[in-house]
């Protein structure tokens, strides 16, 4: 019976995500500010937007990697592509990044927040210093970028696309500060969506729940701690773009994460069992 139930739920979610009204032409000429664009899902997002003819401003911490991505975007057909290197650990960086994008593009249709500050999994990562740093990069900078970009997005009836994590919906062991920042994102943008709705502000907010990022830094941070495989960057990026373009409230990739989020309250013990299967507790506790 349980197998049949899960199979039925899986088919339901598959049909839901497959049957959308995504129109690639809607992104031609769209003005996009994308953070965390130097590697992994962010890099693939930049390439997808370039193929679709969007005008881009890319930002990340590492200038050399950004230059490589910008060059590839131009080859893929992006009409306009600019970059600005910025460290989101600096409280001054978010405002300067948005102002740069507004100056270069004349406004924004999409703000895609994808950057992350990673930390090694384990007990040492939950020190007050590490937590403050992670909250600035993974939460407060998102708030600052959103606040500065919101007037332009309001004018264009644009979209906020927030790339988050399963750890912002389902807490797990040995990721305390990272999970705290991701839960803060879910609370902030969920509340902001309600505020915009009651104020009749036509700005969509799409929360994207992804698994382990397909990038070397993410894999290294959890090496030996988790058995979870990284989500393929191009496929995860396309799911994010489709969700943002169709103004969906949420995107889950892989789709089974939606089931796990539902299990959080329905079946807490099986949820804990599923999480434990993907966790090397001994390695994490020793980290």
CATH architecture type? 3-Layer(aba) Sandwich
| Helicity, as a percent range | 40-55%
What is the count of distinct domains? Answer: 1
Which CATH class is shown? Alpha Beta
CATH fold name, please?
A: Rossmann fold
Major beta sheet summary: 7 strands, parallel
Class of secondary structure makeup: alpha/beta
- Tally the beta strands: 7
Gyration radius, in Å: 19 Å
What is the strand arrangement across the widest sheet?
Answer: 3-2-1-4-5-6-7
The number of helices is 11
Structural features:
signal, SDR_fam, oxidoreductase, disordered C terminus, oxidoreductase activity, alpha/beta, Rossmann fold, 11-beta-HSD
How would you briefly describe this protein structure?
Helices cover 53% and strands 13% of the residues. By secondary structure, the chain is an alpha/beta fold. A 7-stranded parallel β-sheet has the order 3-2-1-4-5-6-7, with helices on both faces.
Overall description:
This protein has one domain (24-282): 3-Layer(aba) Sandwich (Rossmann fold). A seven-stranded parallel beta sheet has the order 3-2-1-4-5-6-7, with helices on both faces. Helix 5 (128-156) links the parallel strand 4 and strand 5 (159-165). The longest helix has 29 residues, at 128-156. With 287 residues, it is an alpha/beta fold. 53% of the residues lie in helices and 13% in strands. The chain has helices at 2-18, 40-51, 63-75, 93-105, 128-156, 176-198, 216-221, 233-245, 256-266, 268-277, 281-286; strands spanning 31-35, 55-60, 81-85, 110-113, 159-165, 204-210, 250-253. The radius of gyration is 19 Å and the shape is globular. Its main location: secreted.
């Amino acid at each position: 019976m349980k197998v049949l139930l899960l199979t039925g739920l899986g088919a339901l979610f598959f049909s839901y995500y497959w049957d959308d009204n995504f129109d690639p032409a809607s992104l031609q000429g769209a003005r996009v500010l994308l953070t965390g664009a130097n590697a992994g899902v962010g890099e693939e997002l930049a390439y997808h937007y370039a193929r679709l003819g969007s005008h881009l401003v890319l930002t990340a911490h590492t200038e050399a990697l950004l230059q490589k991505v910008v060059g590839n975007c131009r080859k893929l057909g992006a009409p306009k592509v600019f970059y600005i290197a910025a460290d989101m650990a600096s409280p001054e960086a978010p405002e300067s990044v948005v102002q740069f994008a507004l100056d270069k593009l004349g406004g924004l249709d999409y703000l895609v927040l994808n950057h992350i500050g990673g930390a090694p999994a384990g007990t040492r990562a939950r020190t007050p210093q590490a937590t403050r740093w992670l909250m600035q990069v993974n939460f407060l900078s998102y708030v600052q970028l959103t606040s500065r970009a919101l007037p332009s997005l309001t004018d264009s009836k644009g979209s906020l696309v927030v790339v988050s994590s399963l750890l912002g919906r389902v807490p797990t062991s040995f990721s305390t500060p990272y999970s705290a920042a991701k839960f803060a994102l879910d609370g902030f943008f969920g509340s902001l969506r309600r505020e915009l709705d009651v104020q009749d502000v036509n700005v969509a907010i799409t929360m994207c729940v992804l698994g382990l990022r397909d990038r070397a830094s993410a894999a290294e941070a959890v090496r030996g701690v988790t058995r979870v495989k990284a989500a393929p960057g191009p496929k995860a990026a396309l799911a994010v773009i489709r969700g943002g373009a169709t103004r969906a409230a949420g995107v889950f990739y892989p789709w089974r994460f939606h089931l796990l989020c539902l299990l959080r309250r329905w079946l807490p013990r099986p949820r804990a069992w599923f999480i434990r299967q993907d966790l090397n507790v001994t390695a994490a506790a020793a980290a």
